Protein backbone atom coordinates (compact mmCIF):
# COMPACT_ATOMS: atom_id res chain seq x y z
CA UNK A 1 0.00 0.00 0.00
CA UNK A 2 1.41 3.38 -0.98
CA UNK A 3 1.43 6.42 1.27
CA UNK A 4 3.89 8.70 2.99
CA UNK A 5 5.63 7.29 6.03
CA UNK A 6 6.88 9.43 8.90
CA UNK A 7 10.67 9.58 8.81
CA UNK A 8 12.48 9.17 12.10
CA UNK A 9 13.37 12.41 13.85
CA UNK A 10 11.39 14.79 11.67
CA UNK A 11 13.05 18.22 11.55
CA UNK A 12 11.23 21.35 12.70
CA UNK A 13 11.00 24.54 10.66
CA UNK A 14 10.08 28.01 11.89
CA UNK A 15 6.93 29.51 10.38
CA UNK A 16 6.43 33.26 10.05
CA UNK A 17 4.14 35.08 12.51
CA UNK A 18 0.56 35.51 11.36
CA UNK A 19 -2.58 37.40 12.26
CA UNK A 20 -6.02 35.95 12.78
CA UNK A 21 -9.63 37.09 12.60
CA UNK A 22 -11.08 37.62 16.06
CA UNK A 23 -14.45 35.90 16.03
CA UNK A 24 -15.66 37.25 19.35
CA UNK A 25 -16.31 36.03 22.88
CA UNK A 26 -18.74 33.55 24.37
CA UNK A 27 -19.37 32.24 27.85
CA UNK A 28 -18.94 28.55 26.93
CA UNK A 29 -17.03 27.37 23.86
CA UNK A 30 -17.53 23.73 22.92
CA UNK A 31 -14.97 22.34 20.48
CA UNK A 32 -16.09 19.24 18.59
CA UNK A 33 -19.62 18.49 17.37
CA UNK A 34 -19.73 14.75 18.03
CA UNK A 35 -21.86 13.09 20.72
CA UNK A 36 -19.78 14.61 23.54
CA UNK A 37 -19.86 18.08 22.00
CA UNK A 38 -23.57 17.88 21.29
CA UNK A 39 -24.19 16.85 24.90
CA UNK A 40 -21.93 19.65 26.19
CA UNK A 41 -23.59 22.36 24.11
CA UNK A 42 -27.09 21.21 25.05
CA UNK A 43 -26.18 20.93 28.74
CA UNK A 44 -24.50 24.34 28.88
CA UNK A 45 -27.32 26.08 27.00
CA UNK A 46 -29.99 24.51 29.22
CA UNK A 47 -28.02 25.75 32.23
CA UNK A 48 -28.37 29.31 30.94
CA UNK A 49 -25.02 29.94 29.27
CA UNK A 50 -24.26 31.59 25.95
CA UNK A 51 -22.76 28.78 23.87
CA UNK A 52 -20.77 28.50 20.65
CA UNK A 53 -20.01 25.05 19.21
CA UNK A 54 -17.18 24.70 16.69
CA UNK A 55 -16.86 21.62 14.47
CA UNK A 56 -14.11 20.58 12.03
CA UNK A 57 -16.50 19.08 9.45
CA UNK A 58 -19.44 20.67 7.65
CA UNK A 59 -21.90 18.65 9.74
CA UNK A 60 -22.42 17.43 13.27
CA UNK A 61 -22.35 13.93 14.75
CA UNK A 62 -18.65 13.14 14.97
CA UNK A 63 -18.02 9.41 14.78
CA UNK A 64 -21.76 8.77 14.45
CA UNK A 65 -21.84 10.49 11.06
CA UNK A 66 -18.26 11.16 9.91
CA UNK A 67 -17.08 7.63 10.71
CA UNK A 68 -20.51 5.91 10.40
CA UNK A 69 -20.18 4.30 13.82
CA UNK A 70 -23.62 2.71 13.75
CA UNK A 71 -25.55 1.94 15.91
CA UNK A 72 -25.36 3.66 19.31
CA UNK A 73 -24.15 0.84 21.54
CA UNK A 74 -26.03 -0.32 24.61
CA UNK A 75 -26.24 2.07 27.53
CA UNK A 76 -28.30 -0.35 29.63
CA UNK A 77 -27.26 -2.53 32.56
CA UNK A 78 -28.89 -5.54 30.93
CA UNK A 79 -28.11 -9.13 31.79
CA UNK A 80 -26.61 -10.99 28.83
CA UNK A 81 -25.98 -14.68 28.57
CA UNK A 82 -22.97 -15.40 26.42
CA UNK A 83 -20.98 -18.22 24.84
CA UNK A 84 -17.33 -18.28 23.88
CA UNK A 85 -16.69 -17.66 20.20
CA UNK A 86 -13.57 -17.89 18.10
CA UNK A 87 -10.49 -16.40 19.81
CA UNK A 88 -12.44 -16.64 23.10
CA UNK A 89 -14.52 -13.62 22.20
CA UNK A 90 -17.84 -13.61 24.04
CA UNK A 91 -20.80 -13.51 21.70
CA UNK A 92 -24.25 -12.48 22.99
CA UNK A 93 -26.92 -15.12 22.51
CA UNK A 94 -29.76 -13.73 24.57
CA UNK A 95 -30.68 -10.46 26.17
CA UNK A 96 -32.39 -10.09 29.51
CA UNK A 97 -34.33 -7.07 30.61
CA UNK A 98 -32.25 -3.96 31.11
CA UNK A 99 -32.50 -0.47 32.53
CA UNK A 100 -30.88 2.59 30.91
CA UNK A 101 -28.08 4.22 32.89
CA UNK A 102 -27.76 7.19 30.52
CA UNK A 103 -30.61 9.64 30.03
CA UNK A 104 -30.81 13.44 29.77
CA UNK A 105 -29.71 14.82 26.40
CA UNK A 106 -29.36 11.32 24.96
CA UNK A 107 -33.05 10.54 25.48
CA UNK A 108 -34.05 13.93 24.07
CA UNK A 109 -32.07 13.10 20.93
CA UNK A 110 -33.47 9.59 20.65
CA UNK A 111 -37.03 10.85 21.02
CA UNK A 112 -36.53 13.30 18.16
CA UNK A 113 -34.77 10.72 16.00
CA UNK A 114 -37.45 8.07 16.51
CA UNK A 115 -40.26 10.54 15.73
CA UNK A 116 -38.40 11.54 12.55
CA UNK A 117 -38.05 7.88 11.48
CA UNK A 118 -34.31 8.10 11.97
CA UNK A 119 -33.78 5.58 14.77
CA UNK A 120 -35.20 2.45 16.40
CA UNK A 121 -35.85 2.52 20.13
CA UNK A 122 -33.46 0.35 22.16
CA UNK A 123 -35.11 -2.85 23.31
CA UNK A 124 -34.45 -6.50 23.92
CA UNK A 125 -35.01 -7.08 20.19
CA UNK A 126 -32.23 -4.64 19.24
CA UNK A 127 -29.88 -5.91 21.94
CA UNK A 128 -30.40 -2.49 23.55
CA UNK A 129 -28.47 -0.84 20.73
CA UNK A 130 -29.98 2.05 18.74
CA UNK A 131 -29.88 1.65 14.94
CA UNK A 132 -30.01 5.13 13.40
CA UNK A 133 -29.87 6.96 10.09
CA UNK A 134 -26.73 9.16 9.94
CA UNK A 135 -28.29 11.80 7.67
CA UNK A 136 -31.27 12.31 9.97
CA UNK A 137 -28.85 12.30 12.91
CA UNK A 138 -27.16 15.37 11.37
CA UNK A 139 -30.43 17.18 10.75
CA UNK A 140 -31.94 16.49 14.17
CA UNK A 141 -28.82 17.67 16.01
CA UNK A 142 -28.82 20.88 13.94
CA UNK A 143 -32.45 21.54 14.84
CA UNK A 144 -32.02 20.77 18.54
CA UNK A 145 -29.02 23.07 18.93
CA UNK A 146 -30.73 25.86 17.04
CA UNK A 147 -33.75 25.47 19.32
CA UNK A 148 -31.48 25.98 22.36
CA UNK A 149 -29.83 29.08 20.93
CA UNK A 150 -26.43 27.46 20.37
CA UNK A 151 -24.39 29.21 17.66
CA UNK A 152 -22.36 27.07 15.26
CA UNK A 153 -19.10 27.49 13.40
CA UNK A 154 -18.38 24.63 11.00
CA UNK A 155 -15.39 23.79 8.80
CA UNK A 156 -13.04 24.92 11.58
CA UNK A 157 -10.20 22.76 12.88
CA UNK A 158 -8.91 23.56 16.38
CA UNK A 159 -5.15 24.05 16.42
CA UNK A 160 -4.20 25.88 19.60
CA UNK A 161 -5.31 26.93 23.09
CA UNK A 162 -4.00 29.71 25.29
CA UNK A 163 -4.93 31.31 28.58
CA UNK A 164 -5.65 35.03 28.51
CA UNK A 165 -4.36 37.48 31.15
CA UNK A 166 -7.89 37.96 32.54
CA UNK A 167 -8.24 34.23 33.15
CA UNK A 168 -10.32 33.52 30.05
CA UNK A 169 -9.33 31.17 27.26
CA UNK A 170 -8.58 31.59 23.57
CA UNK A 171 -8.81 28.91 20.90
CA UNK A 172 -7.31 29.08 17.43
CA UNK A 173 -9.07 27.48 14.47
CA UNK A 174 -7.79 26.82 10.95
CA UNK A 175 -10.42 27.71 8.33
CA UNK A 176 -10.77 28.44 4.61
CA UNK A 177 -11.00 32.09 5.68
CA UNK A 178 -7.63 31.87 7.39
CA UNK A 179 -7.02 31.48 11.12
CA UNK A 180 -9.89 32.47 13.42
CA UNK A 181 -9.70 32.92 17.19
CA UNK A 182 -12.58 32.68 19.64
CA UNK A 183 -12.42 33.68 23.31
CA UNK A 184 -14.46 32.12 26.08
CA UNK A 185 -14.89 32.08 29.82
CA UNK A 186 -14.68 28.28 29.74
CA UNK A 187 -13.79 25.80 26.96
CA UNK A 188 -14.99 22.19 26.72
CA UNK A 189 -12.63 19.96 24.72
CA UNK A 190 -14.79 17.42 22.89
CA UNK A 191 -12.29 16.73 20.11
CA UNK A 192 -12.03 13.06 21.07
CA UNK A 193 -8.25 13.35 20.88
CA UNK A 194 -7.86 15.91 23.66
CA UNK A 195 -6.27 18.30 21.17
CA UNK A 196 -6.91 21.46 23.17
CA UNK A 197 -6.00 19.90 26.51
CA UNK A 198 -2.69 18.79 25.02
CA UNK A 199 -2.10 22.25 23.53
CA UNK A 200 -2.81 23.75 26.97
CA UNK A 201 -0.09 21.59 28.51
CA UNK A 202 -2.26 19.02 30.26
CA UNK A 203 -0.52 15.67 30.79
CA UNK A 204 -1.93 12.66 28.96
CA UNK A 205 -1.36 8.97 28.25
CA UNK A 206 -1.59 7.06 25.00
CA UNK A 207 -2.18 3.33 24.60
CA UNK A 208 -1.79 0.39 26.90
CA UNK A 209 0.92 0.54 29.57
CA UNK A 210 3.05 -2.36 28.34
CA UNK A 211 3.81 -1.00 24.87
CA UNK A 212 1.83 2.18 24.21
CA UNK A 213 -0.27 0.57 21.48
CA UNK A 214 -3.83 1.82 21.02
CA UNK A 215 -6.95 0.02 19.91
CA UNK A 216 -7.04 -0.25 16.10
CA UNK A 217 -8.89 2.06 13.74
CA UNK A 218 -11.87 0.83 11.71
CA UNK A 219 -13.48 2.05 8.50
CA UNK A 220 -17.19 1.35 8.79
CA UNK A 221 -19.51 1.19 5.80
CA UNK A 222 -23.14 0.75 4.83
CA UNK A 223 -24.26 -2.03 2.48
CA UNK A 224 -27.47 -1.69 0.47
CA UNK A 225 -29.71 -3.97 -1.59
CA UNK A 226 -29.51 -6.48 1.24
CA UNK A 227 -32.23 -9.16 1.14
CA UNK A 228 -32.98 -9.52 4.82
CA UNK A 229 -35.39 -12.47 4.56
CA UNK A 230 -32.91 -14.56 2.56
CA UNK A 231 -30.24 -13.88 5.16
CA UNK A 232 -32.61 -14.63 8.07
CA UNK A 233 -33.64 -17.90 6.44
CA UNK A 234 -29.96 -18.85 6.22
CA UNK A 235 -29.52 -17.95 9.90
CA UNK A 236 -32.57 -20.03 10.86
CA UNK A 237 -31.18 -23.00 8.96
CA UNK A 238 -27.83 -22.59 10.74
CA UNK A 239 -28.74 -21.36 14.23
CA UNK A 240 -25.20 -22.01 15.44
CA UNK A 241 -24.01 -19.71 12.67
CA UNK A 242 -21.04 -18.33 14.56
CA UNK A 243 -19.42 -21.73 15.10
CA UNK A 244 -21.39 -24.21 13.00
CA UNK A 245 -19.88 -26.37 10.27
CA UNK A 246 -21.96 -24.62 7.60
CA UNK A 247 -22.30 -21.28 9.36
CA UNK A 248 -20.77 -17.88 8.81
CA UNK A 249 -17.46 -18.84 10.43
CA UNK A 250 -17.20 -21.65 7.90
CA UNK A 251 -17.86 -19.28 5.00
CA UNK A 252 -15.18 -16.94 6.32
CA UNK A 253 -12.70 -19.82 6.62
CA UNK A 254 -13.45 -21.02 3.09
CA UNK A 255 -12.91 -17.51 1.72
CA UNK A 256 -9.64 -17.18 3.64
CA UNK A 257 -8.41 -20.53 2.34
CA UNK A 258 -9.30 -19.44 -1.20
CA UNK A 259 -7.33 -16.21 -0.80
CA UNK A 260 -10.45 -14.04 -0.98
CA UNK A 261 -10.15 -12.65 2.55
CA UNK A 262 -6.99 -11.49 4.28
CA UNK A 263 -8.24 -9.47 7.23
CA UNK A 264 -6.73 -8.74 10.64
CA UNK A 265 -10.12 -8.96 12.33
CA UNK A 266 -11.51 -12.33 13.37
CA UNK A 267 -15.13 -11.82 12.35
CA UNK A 268 -17.58 -9.96 10.15
CA UNK A 269 -19.88 -7.89 12.32
CA UNK A 270 -23.27 -6.69 11.04
CA UNK A 271 -25.53 -4.06 12.58
CA UNK A 272 -29.08 -3.29 11.54
CA UNK A 273 -30.14 0.20 10.47
CA UNK A 274 -33.66 1.68 10.35
CA UNK A 275 -33.82 0.58 6.70
CA UNK A 276 -34.66 -3.13 6.14
CA UNK A 277 -32.59 -3.42 2.94
CA UNK A 278 -29.40 -2.07 4.54
CA UNK A 279 -26.81 -3.18 7.09
CA UNK A 280 -23.81 -1.51 8.67
CA UNK A 281 -20.54 -3.46 8.63
CA UNK A 282 -17.83 -3.17 11.28
CA UNK A 283 -14.98 -5.47 10.26
CA UNK A 284 -11.98 -3.56 8.95
CA UNK A 285 -9.01 -2.99 11.23
CA UNK A 286 -5.74 -1.05 11.12
CA UNK A 287 -3.27 -0.77 13.99
CA UNK A 288 -1.88 2.72 14.20
CA UNK A 289 -2.14 6.01 16.04
CA UNK A 290 -5.14 8.19 15.25
CA UNK A 291 -3.27 11.44 15.97
CA UNK A 292 -0.53 10.64 13.46
CA UNK A 293 -1.27 12.02 10.00
CA UNK A 294 1.03 9.33 8.60
CA UNK A 295 -0.88 6.49 10.29
CA UNK A 296 -4.24 8.04 9.40
CA UNK A 297 -3.22 8.16 5.74
CA UNK A 298 -2.20 4.52 5.69
CA UNK A 299 -5.31 3.55 7.65
CA UNK A 300 -7.53 5.02 4.94
CA UNK A 301 -5.66 3.21 2.18
CA UNK A 302 -5.52 -0.16 3.93
CA UNK A 303 -9.08 -0.22 5.27
CA UNK A 304 -10.64 0.79 1.96
CA UNK A 305 -9.00 -2.25 0.37
CA UNK A 306 -10.24 -4.39 3.27
CA UNK A 307 -13.74 -3.01 2.68
CA UNK A 308 -13.56 -4.06 -0.98
CA UNK A 309 -12.58 -7.60 0.07
CA UNK A 310 -15.47 -7.82 2.52
CA UNK A 311 -17.98 -6.49 -0.02
CA UNK A 312 -16.89 -9.13 -2.58
CA UNK A 313 -17.05 -11.86 0.06
CA UNK A 314 -20.59 -10.89 1.05
CA UNK A 315 -21.78 -10.83 -2.58
CA UNK A 316 -20.11 -14.10 -3.51
CA UNK A 317 -20.53 -16.20 -0.37
CA UNK A 318 -23.26 -15.01 2.00
CA UNK A 319 -27.00 -15.58 1.34
CA UNK A 320 -28.94 -12.32 1.19
CA UNK A 321 -26.01 -10.31 -0.14
CA UNK A 322 -25.90 -11.51 -3.76
CA UNK A 323 -27.10 -8.17 -5.15
CA UNK A 324 -25.58 -5.97 -2.46
CA UNK A 325 -23.28 -3.00 -2.90
CA UNK A 326 -21.47 -0.48 -0.69
CA UNK A 327 -23.63 2.63 -0.30
CA UNK A 328 -21.16 4.68 1.67
CA UNK A 329 -18.03 4.44 3.77
CA UNK A 330 -17.09 6.82 6.55
CA UNK A 331 -15.83 10.27 5.66
CA UNK A 332 -12.81 9.17 7.63
CA UNK A 333 -11.62 6.01 9.36
CA UNK A 334 -13.07 5.58 12.84
CA UNK A 335 -10.61 6.15 15.69
CA UNK A 336 -11.20 4.33 18.98
CA UNK A 337 -8.36 5.55 21.16
CA UNK A 338 -5.73 8.28 21.18
CA UNK A 339 -4.92 10.62 24.08
CA UNK A 340 -6.41 10.03 27.50
CA UNK A 341 -6.02 13.33 29.33
CA UNK A 342 -4.87 12.91 32.92
CA UNK A 343 -7.34 14.57 35.25
CA UNK A 344 -7.81 15.06 38.96
CA UNK A 345 -8.92 11.40 39.04
CA UNK A 346 -8.07 8.62 36.62
CA UNK A 347 -10.88 6.11 36.23
CA UNK A 348 -9.51 2.55 36.17
CA UNK A 349 -10.55 -0.75 34.69
CA UNK A 350 -11.07 -2.02 38.22
CA UNK A 351 -13.46 0.88 38.88
CA UNK A 352 -15.47 -0.14 35.82
CA UNK A 353 -15.53 -3.89 36.39
CA UNK A 354 -16.36 -3.59 40.11
CA UNK A 355 -19.09 -1.02 39.38
CA UNK A 356 -17.51 1.54 41.70
CA UNK A 357 -19.50 4.51 42.99
CA UNK A 358 -18.21 8.06 43.56
CA UNK A 359 -19.62 10.95 45.57
CA UNK A 360 -18.90 13.31 42.65
CA UNK A 361 -20.62 11.12 40.04
CA UNK A 362 -21.77 13.07 36.97
CA UNK A 363 -22.44 10.18 34.55
CA UNK A 364 -22.81 6.41 34.60
CA UNK A 365 -21.90 3.55 32.29
CA UNK A 366 -22.64 -0.15 31.97
CA UNK A 367 -20.98 -1.05 28.67
CA UNK A 368 -18.46 -3.92 28.93
CA UNK A 369 -14.71 -3.58 28.75
CA UNK A 370 -14.26 -4.02 24.99
CA UNK A 371 -10.62 -4.02 23.85
CA UNK A 372 -9.84 -4.69 20.19
CA UNK A 373 -6.40 -6.21 19.75
CA UNK A 374 -3.94 -3.56 18.49
CA UNK A 375 -1.87 -6.31 16.83
CA UNK A 376 -4.53 -8.06 14.76
CA UNK A 377 -7.23 -10.59 15.56
CA UNK A 378 -8.93 -10.96 18.88
CA UNK A 379 -11.19 -8.89 21.13
CA UNK A 380 -11.33 -8.90 24.92
CA UNK A 381 -14.87 -8.52 26.26
CA UNK A 382 -15.41 -8.40 30.03
CA UNK A 383 -18.80 -7.60 31.51
CA UNK A 384 -19.83 -5.79 34.65
CA UNK A 385 -21.71 -7.68 37.38
CA UNK A 386 -25.29 -8.39 36.35
CA UNK A 387 -27.53 -5.37 36.60
CA UNK A 388 -24.68 -3.09 37.74
CA UNK A 389 -23.28 0.21 36.48
CA UNK A 390 -20.22 2.30 37.31
CA UNK A 391 -19.91 6.00 38.09
CA UNK A 392 -17.77 8.56 36.28
CA UNK A 393 -16.57 11.30 38.66
CA UNK A 394 -16.46 14.99 37.85
CA UNK A 395 -12.74 14.92 38.65
CA UNK A 396 -12.12 12.84 35.50
CA UNK A 397 -13.29 15.81 33.41
CA UNK A 398 -10.83 18.27 34.95
CA UNK A 399 -7.36 18.19 33.32
CA UNK A 400 -4.44 18.48 35.69
CA UNK A 401 -2.49 21.73 35.69
CA UNK A 402 -5.02 23.56 33.48
CA UNK A 403 -7.79 25.99 34.40
CA UNK A 404 -10.68 27.20 32.27
CA UNK A 405 -10.92 23.89 30.39
CA UNK A 406 -12.88 20.66 30.75
CA UNK A 407 -12.69 17.48 28.69
CA UNK A 408 -15.54 15.20 27.68
CA UNK A 409 -15.99 12.07 25.59
CA UNK A 410 -13.37 9.42 24.97
CA UNK A 411 -10.44 11.67 25.98
CA UNK A 412 -11.46 11.99 29.67
CA UNK A 413 -9.14 10.76 32.40
CA UNK A 414 -9.05 6.98 32.54
CA UNK A 415 -6.72 4.08 31.93
CA UNK A 416 -6.60 1.91 28.81
CA UNK A 417 -9.05 -0.64 30.20
CA UNK A 418 -11.64 1.81 31.54
CA UNK A 419 -11.44 3.79 28.30
CA UNK A 420 -12.60 0.76 26.32
CA UNK A 421 -15.96 1.02 28.09
CA UNK A 422 -16.61 4.75 28.47
CA UNK A 423 -15.51 5.57 24.89
CA UNK A 424 -18.91 4.62 23.43
CA UNK A 425 -21.12 7.43 22.15
CA UNK A 426 -24.01 7.36 24.69
CA UNK A 427 -21.56 7.62 27.61
CA UNK A 428 -19.62 10.32 25.74
CA UNK A 429 -22.84 12.30 25.42
CA UNK A 430 -23.42 11.98 29.17
CA UNK A 431 -19.93 13.20 30.09
CA UNK A 432 -20.41 15.99 27.55
CA UNK A 433 -23.65 17.11 29.17
CA UNK A 434 -21.96 17.13 32.58
CA UNK A 435 -18.97 19.11 31.30
CA UNK A 436 -21.29 21.61 29.65
CA UNK A 437 -23.24 22.11 32.88
CA UNK A 438 -20.03 22.57 34.89
CA UNK A 439 -18.72 25.05 32.30
CA UNK A 440 -21.97 27.04 32.40
CA UNK A 441 -21.94 27.21 36.19
CA UNK A 442 -18.30 28.32 36.17
CA UNK A 443 -18.96 31.04 33.60
CA UNK A 444 -22.06 32.31 35.35
CA UNK A 445 -20.34 32.55 38.74
CA UNK A 446 -16.95 33.77 37.52
CA UNK A 447 -15.22 30.74 38.99
CA UNK A 448 -12.88 28.13 37.55
CA UNK A 449 -14.53 24.78 36.74
CA UNK A 450 -12.48 23.16 39.49
CA UNK A 451 -14.18 25.46 42.01
CA UNK A 452 -17.68 24.27 41.09
CA UNK A 453 -18.91 21.64 43.51
CA UNK A 454 -20.10 18.26 42.30
CA UNK A 455 -23.36 18.83 44.21
CA UNK A 456 -24.10 21.91 42.08
CA UNK A 457 -23.44 20.03 38.85
CA UNK A 458 -25.49 17.02 40.00
CA UNK A 459 -28.43 19.23 40.93
CA UNK A 460 -28.55 20.83 37.47
CA UNK A 461 -28.01 17.50 35.71
CA UNK A 462 -30.93 15.94 37.55
CA UNK A 463 -33.10 18.90 36.57
CA UNK A 464 -32.07 18.22 32.96
CA UNK A 465 -33.17 14.58 33.25
CA UNK A 466 -29.76 12.95 33.57
CA UNK A 467 -29.56 9.48 35.12
CA UNK A 468 -27.73 9.83 38.44
CA UNK A 469 -28.10 8.11 41.81
CA UNK A 470 -30.62 9.82 44.06
CA UNK A 471 -29.44 12.58 46.40
From TrEMBL:
The keyword Amino-acid biosynthesis does not apply. The keyword Metal-binding applies. Keywords: 4Fe-4S, Iron, Iron-sulfur, Metal-binding, Oxidoreductase. It holds the Pfam family FAD_oxidored. This is FAD-dependent oxidoreductase. It comes from Dactylosporangium fulvum.
Amino acid sequence: MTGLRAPAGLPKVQLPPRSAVHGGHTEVLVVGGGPAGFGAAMGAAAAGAEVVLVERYGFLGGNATAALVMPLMSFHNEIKQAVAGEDNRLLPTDHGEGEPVVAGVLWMLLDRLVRAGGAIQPSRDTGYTVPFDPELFKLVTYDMLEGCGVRLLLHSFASDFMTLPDGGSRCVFETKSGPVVLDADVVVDCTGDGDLAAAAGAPYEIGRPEDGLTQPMTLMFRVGNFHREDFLEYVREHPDQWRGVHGLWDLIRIARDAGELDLPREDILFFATPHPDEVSVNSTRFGGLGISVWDLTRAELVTHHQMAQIARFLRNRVPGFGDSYVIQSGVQVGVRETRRVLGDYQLTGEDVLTARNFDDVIARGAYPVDIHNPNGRGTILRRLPQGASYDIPLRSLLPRDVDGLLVAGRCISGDHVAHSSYRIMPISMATGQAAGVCAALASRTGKAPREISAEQVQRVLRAQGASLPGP
